[in-house]
Design brief:
With about 70 residues, the chain is α+β, with helices and mostly antiparallel strands. About 35% of the residues lie in helices and about 15% in strands. The longest helix has 18 residues, at about 50-70. The chain contains 2 helices and 2 strands; from the N terminus they run E-E-H-H. It has helices spanning about 30-35, 50-70, and strands at about 10-15, 20-25.
């Protein structure tokens, strides 16, 4: 769905020193990412992070702080 309908090219991102945001302004993006039961569309997550990625991100942050305070 990401390539066939061009959704991959519709992902936008912004970042600052304190945060990063990614998403899509396409109307059907949320339906595909979260699912839309009434429309018979199953969730096909393409945005967000899973638990493993979250742990890896937190490890990088912790390592950065440990280095900064040595």
């Amino acid at each position: 769905i990401l390539e066939k309908h061009g959704l991959l090219n519709k992902i936008q991102s912004e970042s600052s020193e304190t945060e990063a945001i990614a998403g899509s302004n396409m109307v059907y993006a949320a339906a595909h990412n979260l699912g839309y039961e009434e429309g018979g569309i199953p969730a096909r997550r393409f945005l967000g992070i899973d638990e493993i990625a979250e742990e890896e991100i937190l490890d990088v942050i912790k390592a950065h702080y440990q280095t900064a305070f040595e």
